[in-house]
Specification:
By secondary structure, the protein is α+β, with helices and mostly antiparallel strands. The protein has 17 helices and 22 strands. The strands form 5 sheets. The chain has a 5-stranded antiparallel sheet, sandwiched between helices. The longest helix is centred in the first third of the chain and has 51 residues. The radius of gyration is 57 Å and the shape is rod-shaped.
Length: about 675
């Protein structure tokens, strides 16, 4: 049997079935082992994922500053709470969390909101008060999300809570500030309003309702236009729109209708409030009733206009007064000068009478000049004609003017001048008026036989001092501080009628100040007075300007044809007599048209022309004569009672060569005639 293959008998059907079952069992065991291995791997992966998820959650919770908590489905138990040092931590489940964290008076409201979230299975959100770790009350914003199971039922709540205590405190402080501000605005007598950044008004204090009779609802937004005067609405609206479009402050004057229907003027102003970024958050404004002020301003304007008109009429009156006073002085002065030319044939009585007339005429002329001069000074209408002048010439002219008064009162005048000339940049006529007034004042208040000193010196470089001292009655201490005030006078007495008008020293001060100088007075009652004028000296190297004309009184070298025009017959007659006595040929006229006709026929060298003429005034006559080719070189002299600076300027513009104020000095007229005579020789 060795080496011979063994033949296996064929398997029976039963064996085959058993064999098949064994194979299937092995395959099932193998599949089960594989499945078990896969499940083990999945479980391990799930466990790893859960650990990683828990780690990420813990990291998120740790990184957050908010409180994190977990609640049971019905909020009856708090599973866990991490208080973040804001509220007390809860590490173990707690069923008393509501009592521990929420104030009793807030618990019902908190639970009502929670129950509504449970019922609707929606997010819970609420700002509420909470007890903090330190036992104080704080505010939190709490938000919890429901976690649902596979059946859609709430399995747990997961929530966070933020500490909003500081914000709530800030909001409360802001509300308190707003309440305080509103209280202040409600209490103010002014009308206060506020507006949103777009310009819509959202607040009026009670004063608006009281004034307009309108409710707050009627006035808000654009309702305020209903109580603005119809003529002011468009302008006010434009100003308001410009303000909130540009951010510029709003300011306007307009009329508001009061509840009784009267419109009253108001001044409104509004400023924008801005946040830290510069964005406008609010407009705050006020409206002040200025109706009474506006009426007062209107009344003042009316009064100012009336005063201006009164001032104009006063100037017109003074100009007319000047003319009316000086016109009769002119023939009187001419008559005195005519008498003076006949001194050789006068007896003693005639000489005395002429002297009296001459002195009183000078006094009257001085008073008229002062009266008219003070008006120009007080209204600022005096314009200086400055040039380079020497002080000695001013003093000599003033002494010559006042000498008759001093001689009349038998007073002694001592004049002291420096050996070297002192030059000033000044109006010689005005400064001479200063010295004349001081000398006249000294003479008036010094008794007969008294002494007056006039001294000029330059103790300091650049300053000239003119002193006038007397032995008169002196000035009382009460009067001395006001001595330069207008219309100030010492008390008059029956034995002294030389008080004047009280304007001479006021003129002295104003004219001195116009020359950039000063004047001061000192006195001892009963022992005389001293006035000191200080003036700036002109530098010695200043170029010389043309010297003003001086009155030389030199005789005319040849006779002239002179036309005298004046509506006052005595003035024409006296001038004619004076001129004829000097050898001139004279023609006369008494109105404007006649003056033009006589001039055209007569062809004069000089025309002495009054301004206030009938028919044509002196300006019109001068213009018509200048229009004639043959009258271009004829000398026209305005001889008039109108002596203001504006009159002088008008005369020059009309074509006059000279402007003399009545009564003109004979020396002035002789100087003009002498100049004309030299030119036509």
């Amino acid at each position: 049997m060795n080496g011979t293959p063994t033949t296996r008998p064929p398997a029976s059907p039963a064996d085959l079935a058993v064999e098949q079952q064994l194979r299937e069992m092995n395959e099932a065991l193998l599949l089960s082992s594989i499945r078990q291995h896969e499940l083990t791997e999945q479980a391990q992966k799930a466990e790893t994922a859960a650990v990683e998820s828990e780690a990420r959650f813990r990291a998120l919770v740790t990184a957050s500053s908010d409180v994190v908590y977990r609640m049971s489905p019905d909020w009856s138990e708090m599973y866990q709470l991490d208080g973040r040092n804001f509220i007390v931590d809860t590490e173990k489940p707690s069923a008393t969390w509501l009592q521990e964290y929420i104030l009793p008076e807030d618990q019902a409201h908190v639970m009502a909101v929670i129950n509504e979230a449970i019922r609707t299975k929606t997010i819970f959100e609420l700002e509420h008060r909470v007890r903090r770790v330190d036992g104080t009350l704080g505010w939190t914003f709490s938000r919890a999300v429901p976690l649902l199971n596979s059946k859609g039922e709430i399995a747990e709540w997961f929530g966070v809570a933020s500490d909003v205590t500081e914000r709530k405190r800030a909001e409360e402080a802001l509300r308190q500030a707003e309440r305080s501000l509103r209280f202040i605005m409600d209490s103010m007598p002014q009308k206060i309003f506020t507006a949103r950044p777009n310009g819509d008004i959202d607040y009026f204090n009670p004063q608006w309702t009281e004034f307009t009779g309108m409710s707050f609802e009627q006035m808000t937004d654009s309702g305020w236009t209903r109580f603005v005067h119809p003529d002011d609405v468009d302008e006010k609206t434009q100003h308001w729109r410009h303000a909130f479009d540009t951010g510029e402050p709003f300011q306007s004057e307009h009329r508001f209708r009061r509840a009784d229907g009267e419109y009253r003027w108001h001044f409104s102003r509004a400023l924008p409030m801005r946040d830290e970024t510069g964005r406008i958050t609010l407009w705050v404004g006020s409206s002040t009733d200025v109706h009474d002020i506006k009426q007062a301003e209107a009344a003042l304007q009316t009064q100012a206009a009336e005063l201006a008109d009164l001032d104009r009429r006063k100037d017109e009156f003074l100009a007319m007064l000047s003319h009316e006073l000086r016109s009769p002085l002119a023939p009187i002065a001419n008559a005195v000068q005519l008498l003076g030319l006949q001194r050789a044939s006068e007896n003693q009585i005639q000489q005395q009478a002429r002297g009296i007339i001459e002195r009183q005429l000078g006094q009257l002329q001085h008073l008229v000049d002062d009266l008219l001069e003070v008006s120009r000074l007080t209204t600022g209408k005096v314009q200086l004609r400055r040039e380079r002048v020497v002080v000695s010439s001013i003093v000599e002219g003033a002494v010559e003017t006042v000498r008759p008064l001093i001689e009349q009162r038998r007073q002694e005048l001592t004049v002291s001048l420096p050996t070297e000339p002192i030059w000033l940049h000044a109006d010689a006529a005005r400064l001479e008026q200063v010295v004349v007034n001081l000398l006249t004042n000294a003479a008036k208040y010094t008794a007969e036989g008294g002494h007056i000193w006039l001294t000029v010196e330059m103790p300091l470089i650049g300053e000239c001092i003119i002193r006038v001292r007397d032995t008169g009655v002196g000035i009382s201490p009460a009067l001395l501080p006001r001595i330069f005030d207008l219309f100030t006078q010492a008390e008059r007495s029956l034995d002294r009628s030389q008080g004047g008008l009280g304007i001479g020293l006021a003129l002295v001060q104003r004219l001195t100040e116009l020359h950039d100088g000063t004047v001061e007075a000192s006195s001892v009652l009963g022992r005389g007075s001293e006035f000191v004028v200080r003036l700036p000296v002109l530098a010695t190297d200043t170029p010389l300007s043309s010297s003003p004309e001086t009155e030389t009184g030199q005789p005319v070298t040849r006779p002239l044809r002179v036309l005298v025009v004046d509506d006052n017959a005595d003035t024409v007659l006296s001038f004619s007599m004076l001129l004829k006595t000097s050898g001139h040929d004279v023609r006369t006229a008494h109105d404007g048209p006649t003056a033009v006709q006589v001039a055209l026929d007569y062809r004069p060298d000089v025309v002495l022309l009054d301004i206030g003429l009938p028919g044509l005034n002196g300006y019109q006559v001068a213009k018509r004569l200048r229009q004639q080719p043959d009258f271009k070189n004829v000398v026209l002299v305005a001889l008039t009672g109108y002596g203001q600076d504006s009159d002088r300027q008008t005369a020059l513009q009309a074509g006059f060569n000279h402007h003399l104020v009545k009564p003109a000095r004979l020396a002035q007229l002789q100087q003009i005639l002498a100049t004309v005579s030299e030119r036509v020789t």
